[in-house]
Design a protein that fits this description.
By secondary structure, the protein is an all-alpha fold. It contains seven helices and no strands. Helix 1 packs antiparallel against helix 4 (58-81) and helix 5 packs antiparallel against helix 7.
């Protein structure tokens, strides 16, 4: 991480904006209306699936796990390791995040579905939901990277 005395105000504004977007993602996952990103997506998949996800707070769990995964990998890459400053090294991190997000989402939700004997939802709606979660994670990880990269000592220009 960059020394605090060499950072600028705009660096902290980007970090704060990323934290606000994270808070909005997590709070919106608890709402039962048009502001819930996951609920809007899953209603188009299956109404029973969306109701089960909302009633068991699985949208919140998926949003929290995605947030932890994205922030954890970004902080590890930009602030802890802070030596890999090539674009293809950043591409490896995005592949890791995008590969782990549907796995985490699947195992978070499948236990609830299997406990309620809804195997058909695991086979159909949950797999479709995980594809959508993958794209949400991709966009969200890029936003998080823009939030933390300005405070990096060596990787502040990676990937763009």
């Amino acid at each position: 991480m960059k020394n605090v005395k060499y950072s600028k105000t705009i660096d902290w504004v980007f970090l704060f904006a990323g934290l606000v977007i994270t808070a909005l993602l997590i709070v919106s996952s608890t709402l039962n209306n048009d502001l819930n990103l996951f609920d809007n997506i899953s209603w188009r998949l299956d109404k029973q699936f969306a109701n089960l996800m909302y009633n068991n707070n699985l949208y919140l769990a998926v949003a929290c796990y995605i947030s932890l995964l994205c922030w954890g990998v970004a902080i590890l890459y930009y602030w802890v390791i802070d030596r890999f400053h090539r674009w293809w090294q950043w591409l490896i991190t995005i592949v890791i995040v995008v590969a782990l997000s549907p796995v985490v989402s699947f195992y978070t939700c499948s236990g609830t579905f299997l406990d309620k004997n809804l195997d058909i939802l695991v086979e159909t709606a949950l797999k479709s939901f995980n594809i959508i979660v993958t794209f949400i994670t991709l966009v969200y990880y890029i936003i998080v990277c823009f939030s933390v990269k300005r405070l990096s000592a060596h990787c502040s220009t990676t990937p763009f």
